[in-house]
Hints:
By secondary structure, this protein is α/β, with parallel strands linked by helices. The chain is built from 14 helices and 13 strands.
Amino acid sequence: MSLTVKFEKLLAGRSELFRASEVRELLKVTEGGDVISLAGGYPDPRVFPKDDLAEIAKEVISDEASRALQYSPTAGVTEFREELKKFMRRRGVTVRSDDDIIVTTGSQQALDLVARTFVEKDDEIIVELPTYLAALNAFRLSKPGMTAIPLDESGMRTDILESEIKRLKWLGREIKFIYTIPVAHNPTGITMSLERKKELLEIASKYDLVIIEDDPYSYFVYDDGVDITPIKTLDKEGRVVYMSTFSKILAPGLRIGWVLGNEYVTNVLERAKQTADLHTSTLTQIIAMEALRRGVVDKTIDKARQIYRVKRDAMLEALKKYMVEEAWWPNPVGGFFVMVFLPSYDIDTKKMLPEALKKGVAYVPGASFFANGMGWNTMRLNFSYPSPEQIDEGVKRLAGLIQEKLTGEKVRITPISFFKSGGMF
Ligand code: PMP
Ligand code: G9A
C-alpha cells in the first residue's frame, strides 16, 4: 500500500540519525528460528530468578499497590535509591557525600541522557575503539565529533589518549567527556589494568575532563586476580559519572539502570529524564529493591557467574578447535563477548552475515562498534545466551564459512591483530 501522507517530508532532520541497532535488527531474524545466535548480548534465561521474582511481584502488587502502581519521582523511588547506594558501597564503588543516584530505564537511557545533557553539535567526545554500538548510536544524535582511542590488552591506550587530547585542544575543540567500559568491555571483553585506570584519571584531571564509566559487566569476571576497582573509586575529584544496570544481574526486561555521580549532574539528568518518560516503572523499581534486600541479586550474580564461566570456556575452546589459524581474539576475563579479528581485510563480516545466517549462525559484524569506520574484518560473538553445545556448533559453522572465504582469494595477511599492531591498522 502506498503512503497517502508524505511523512518523509515532515520528518525532523535529526530523524536521519536514528540508526537501527544491528543487535536489535538481528534479533528479528534469530528469534524463534533455527539460527544459533552468537549475536545479541542476552542473559541466559536460566539465570533469571523467576520464582523469587514471581513471589516478590505478587507481594508487591497485593500489599503495596497504592505505591507500586502509582507514579513516582523522576530520580527514582527514594528508598530504592538508598538501597542502590548501599549496594554500590558493598561492591566497592565510592559514593561521595556530594554524589547522588538517578534511576534510569536501563543504562541505555543513561547513555542517551548523558549525551543529551552534555553534548551538542560540534562538541567532541572521546570513546574507545571499538566501543558499545548502542552508545555510539545514542551519542551520534547530538552530532559530536568523535575521537576513538584504541585499546590494547590493558584497556584504553592512555598514551594515545593524551596526544589526541593535545591535538583536539590545539584545534580548539571542546571535549565533553571520555566514555569507557573498563571491565569486560563490550565488544572486546578487555579489562583495563589498574595502572591504566590511574593514568586515565591523571589525564582527565590534568585536562579537566569528565569520565563516563559504564559498568554492566564487573559482576561477571571469571578469572582470579583481575583488578576490577571502579575508576569512580580511584577518583578523588568527583569527575567520574558511573553507570550500571540490573539487566545482567537480575533481568533486562525490568529495564532498570542507574547513574551515580555528582549531584549537580544527576539533577540535570533528572530534568532531561522528565521529558523522556517522567520516571522508570515504579513497579519494577520496587521489585528490584526487594530483590536486593532479600539477597536475590547476590544469588543471581553467583549463579550467573558460574554458568557464564562454563560458556566462556566453551567459546574459547571452540574457537581454538575450529577458527582459522590466522584469526586472533583477546581472551575475555569476563563479560559476555569475544571479538574475533579475521586475518584478511578482504572479508567484510557485514557482507558475510547473510551467508552465515543461511548456514544457521548469527554474529554481530564488528564495524558498528568502530567509531572510525574500520573494523569490517571483525565480528562479535556472544557466549552468555547459547548453550555450550550451540556455541560449539555455531563456531564450527562460522569457522567453516570463514575458511571458505579465505581459500581461493588473494588473502592479505595483516599484522595478526589490531591490538598487536599497537592498536593501529
Ligand atoms: N552499556 C553497555 C556496555 C552494554 O553492554 C549494555 C547492554 N548490556 C548497555 C549499556 C545497556 O544495557 P541496559 O539498557 O539493558 O541496561
Ligand atoms: O548485545 C548487546 O550488546 C546488548 C543487547 C542490546 C540489545 O538488546 O539491543
